[in-house]
Amino acid sequence: MLDLTEKTVTVVGAGRSGLALVRLVRRVKGEPRLTDRRPAEDIPDRDLSALHEQGIVTEFGGHTRDFLDGSHVLVLSPGVPFTSEIVQWAREMSVPVMGEIEFAYQFCQAPVIAVTGSNGKTTVVNLITRVLQEAGISARLCGNVGYPFSDYCRDGRDYGYYVLELSSFQLESLLSPGDPLVRSQAARGFRPKIGVILNFSENHLDRHADLDEYFAAKWRLFQNQREDDYAVLNEGCARSRERAGELKARTRFFGAGQEDPQRAGNPNHAVVRLVAGILNIHPGVVNSVLQAFEGVEHRMELVRSLHGVTYINDSKSTTAESGRWALSQLPGPVIMICGGRDKNIEFSPLRELVRQRVKSMYVIGEASDKLRDTFAQVVPVFGCPDLRQAVNRARDEAAAGDSVLLSPMCASFDMFANFEQRGAIYKQIVMELT
């Protein structure tokens, strides 16, 4: 385990995860400092105040090589790529580099259940957490669900399990078994007791060079597992089937013939049952949780019905595949609101489904032109300058029996802080409709 007593840890990124890292470093008696490319005026006042009150040394408006002087380790927030200049400086200066998940894991005192995949992660980790809690096991949900792992390591509480949702951004930085830090036993490689890859589809090609690189990041989840751990894989994912034989962990498959655990037949329930079975949790407990589960916020969330029109918030949809699933869940005509920051994914495979299900489409954000070019031949597409106008125009067009669906299929960062803010604003606008 890393001994950071009175040692300097440089954290990159002043977002939610970066601030959690600063708090963790202080809990383990290290000396955190923080650097962010954004100018100080772009950092929320409450966060700046907290940093200054704690006496944290900070650098805003860009990174400098000198800021790394004296650093024992450099820790990256999930949004910071390994190609960043500060990472290259650290390597030249022989400063070890870790991601937030790997760093927090050094101080984790309970086994980990880790879930990744292109779609469905949030639903599955919420269900697993609730099943554990219903079975009387203390479980902490964290990771890529708004609760940084760093905030719950060495926090003075005893957990039976950590249940982590992990994105490819968080997985790509995991230390390999051959990393000098791991070989020397100065650090532990991230090793989930149960690792799950739900599915794999085109996503994050604005970050990863191609699909092979994207899948490789996901597959790193299993690299430090041992013979008494479990790897849970989708039988319908060809890439997972092809590589399952190389894993050291015990392999379990779910959802034969299903690439997406959110599709008909609810294979995500199969994942939860499989994980519960590994942990010897009674099926009756699982059934109780599944029957009571009403979904998660911003994922096919019913906002309201007004004049016979149903308004759905699916702001968490950031891929074409999640948009496909959303459309497949709605029976009647759909007025679709989509758009945002393009992630270099291909929308054209959705043309036929859009032609069948969508009455009209209102597009917003940076991806508007791409969406219009893709779908204008199969459905009326209208550009809108902002979300409010899109909702208002959808309301004006909608007839009783229609659904107005916000399913962006794009990242939120061109217009919003995150998908949660996008969904919250959509719900606010919808609730103001008369």
What is the structure about, briefly put?
The protein is an alpha/beta fold.
Describe it.
The protein folds into three domains: 8-95, Rossmann fold (3-Layer(aba) Sandwich), CATH 3.40.50; 105-292, Mur-like, catalytic domain (UDP-N-acetylmuramoyl-L-alanine:D-glutamate ligase); 301-432, Protein-Tyrosine Phosphatase, Chain A, CATH 3.90.190. The chain is 33% helix and 19% strand. The chain is built from 16 helices and 17 strands. The strands form three sheets. It has a six-stranded parallel β-sheet, covered by helices on one side. A six-stranded mixed β-sheet has the order 12-13-17-14-15-16, with helices on both faces. The model is unreliable at 257-264 (pLDDT under 50).
Topology, element by element:
Elements: E1 8-12, H1 16-27, E2 31-36, H2 45-53, E3 57-60, E4 71-76, H3 85-92, E5 97-99, H4 100-105, E6 112-116, H5 121-134, E7 139-143, E8 161-165, H6 168-171, H7 180-183, E9 194-197, H8 211-219, E10 230-234, H9 238-243, E11 250-254, H10 267-278, H11 283-292, E12 301-306, E13 309-313, H12 320-328, E14 334-339, H13 351-357, E15 358-364, H14 368-375, E16 381-383, H15 387-397, E17 403-406, H16 419-432
Parallel strand pairs: 1-2, 1-4, 2-3, 4-5, 6-8, 6-9, 7-8, 9-10, 10-11, 13-17, 14-15, 14-17, 15-16
Antiparallel strand pairs: 12-13
Defining key terms:
33% helix; Protein-Tyrosine Phosphatase, Chain A; Rossmann fold; alpha/beta; 6-stranded parallel sheet; 17 strands; 3 domains; globular; UDP-N-acetylmuramoyl-L-alanine:D-glutamate ligase; 434 residues; 6-stranded mixed sheet
